[in-house]
């Protein structure tokens, strides 16, 4: 998944624009709750990622998620 595709997905699940979020701040401050995390995992998996919910919930930051998902 490209960085652009990553942010397109993220914009559907965070409050506001994902580009405006601090890369190391918890996504919970942007409205990312467990239900949204489950939905975003499914969106990433549909786009070809093999990420799991547990991987993302352990460190819910853009920096960590991008490291894991963006290729």
Detailed description of the structure:
The protein has 71 residues and is an all-alpha fold. 51% of the residues lie in helices and 0% in strands. The chain is built from four helices and no strands. It is globular, with a radius of gyration of 11 Å. The protein starts with a helix and ends with a helix. The model has no long low-confidence stretch (mean pLDDT 95).
| Helix run count | 4
Q: What's the Cα radius of gyration?
A: 11 Å
Which segments are poorly predicted (pLDDT under 50) over 5 or more consecutive residues? Answer: none
Helical/strand content category: mainly alpha
The percent of residues in helical segments reads: 40-55%
From the N-terminal CA to the C-terminal CA, the straight-line distance is 6 Å
Proportion of beta-strand residues: under 5%
Q: Give the mean pLDDT.
A: 95
Q: What series of H and E elements makes up the topology?
A: HHHH
**Total beta strands:** 0
Oligomer: single chain
Biggest pleated sheet: none
- Categorize the overall geometry: globular
Give a concise summary.
By secondary structure, the chain is mainly α. Helix content is 51%, strand content 0%. The chain has helices at residues 3-11, 34-46, 53-58, 62-69.
Helix-strand blueprint:
Layout: H1 3-11, H2 34-46, H3 53-58, H4 62-69
Question: What features would you highlight for this structure?
Answer:
71 residues, mainly alpha, 4 helices
């Amino acid at each position: 998944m490209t960085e652009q595709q990553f942010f397109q997905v993220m914009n559907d699940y965070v409050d506001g624009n994902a580009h405006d979020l601090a890369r190391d701040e918890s996504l919970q401050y942007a409205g990312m709750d467990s239900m949204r995390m489950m939905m975003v995992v499914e969106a990433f998996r549909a786009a070809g990622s093999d990420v799991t919910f547990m991987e993302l919930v352990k460190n819910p930051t853009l920096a960590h998620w991008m490291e894991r998902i963006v290729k």
